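Lecture 7 notes. Example A: sequence first, then its structure tokens.
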Amino acid sequence: MKTLAKLPVTIVTGFLGSGKTTLLRHMLDNAQGRRIAVIVNEFGELGIDGEILKQCSIGCTEEEANGRVYELANGCLCCTVQEEFFPVMRELVARRGDLDHILIETSGLALPKPLVQAFQWPEIRSACTVDAVITVVDSPAVAAGTFAAFPDQVDAQRKLDPNLDHESPLHELFADQLASADLVILNKADLISAEDLARVRLEVAEELPPAVKVIEASSGRVPLDVLIGLGASSEAHIDAATAITTSTMMVKMTTITTPSTPSPSTCRKPTKPCCSTP
């Protein structure tokens, strides 16, 4: 019996308003015949799901699509995930012979590390691999020091969800997103000056290992071959990568605090979509 190759998965993360959904639209519009499954973290939040479902040949509605998998007329799948990430992945694994790639877009609040770690679970690890974690950066927001285009909305959403970290400043959450990245996109690069963009690139680079590539984009327009086929196998090194970045952050904090001041905790509460282990 023919052994199926592992199904590559791309995880797209970033704050609300950074341009994640625009990037996904661009990837799907330029799929070039690839059979791509799409998983979104929270139905109705991202603006892509309703538009995709209009193409569905079996007449999907938002209510019907909640937590289910549909095959669309263009050969892609659209999944909506709230708290049951593993069952959805198990269903996709069962159909991996019909797929070429999976795209997962996290919510504007979900940290990528727990999601990547889910690919260490034996049933998923044997069938899928994380091709890359792509962190989309809102360049004007970082240049302004807010890190998110809508910081008030981000804070309001954090307070509504008891599973999320409510205490850490956005800069620390931003650093967590970068710590998991295999590719960083400085989006909306056309909306700031060259000098501000250079400062954003420098600030981002300080949080990244040297091997992580940083590229610039406008409206999420990046060639598809730059976004997929990276072969990072992120699940194999996510723990080491984030540990190194956290250690670097703690060293930076130590240089600006007095010896009697404890360093801020880097702990995070479990976040969706990986809130339960099978």
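Example B, a different protein, same format:
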Amino acid sequence: MRLPHSRSRGLRGGGPLVVALVMMAPHGETLAAQAGSAIRYRPELLACVAFHQAVLSDLETVHGEDRRTETTGWEGDLVLRAQADTGGVLSVAAWFERLRVWHDTPEGRLEPATDGMLGGRYRGILRPAGDYRPVTAPFIPEAVSAIAAMDTALDELFPPLPPAPLMPGGTVTDGRKWRFHRLSDTLVAGGTALRLRVLRSDTTSVVVDWGSGQVSQGESVEEEWGRVLWQIGKGPLSWVRRITTVVTFPATAVSVRPVRTEVRQERRLEHLGALPPERCAVP
């Protein structure tokens, strides 16, 4: 499974190229990284920035001896503006300036037009630790929504952050679903970058209604591995995620053979850089 490259800096392998520099980060920021200060989203980090997002999903369904494989994907460039709001949260507005969506099946490829989405505003509330609550989403053309859940694109934009200060080599959970492990820090252009491994595992029951009163209960097991690169004074540089979801249903009177569906998904976020304030004028 290979994601497309972005127009600007590209999505190559494990994210943006990390370049060691002789120039060190500002003294205070370097000390903060070494001391394991909790990293948080702040208005100045997201005042007017561009990100590249890319998602690729491989879906395989096995029903007895029958096997079907499909691939869906989308990638685009997003402009985002965040401002301080009451209660210590950030008010976020964002919009796509470029977007591609596609669906590959054994019957061929679908790639609907996305022009109707470009410039449409996503709005929501972002908490300092990365919890995002959507408020509004732009109009999503029906042909696009049939392939990708673009109404929730911003829900998956912000990497979650550790709930407390974390020293290199340390591990902590947020008490809900995320487990964080801080790797050794590195130097990137302009300062210090923290590297986080972010893990998640979840098992849930799934119910499907076949109609005519026939209901089957199955199980969904989801495993996620992720890596976040966070630059002191700049925010998230990249977030690479690999998610595997396996859903199984036993044989029933309706489906005499067991059904197994596996979705392998790769998601990438890349910071493309700060933009001039006039690019982020929001009506």
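Note on Example B: The longest strand covers residues 191-211. The chain has one domain: 27-162+171-276.
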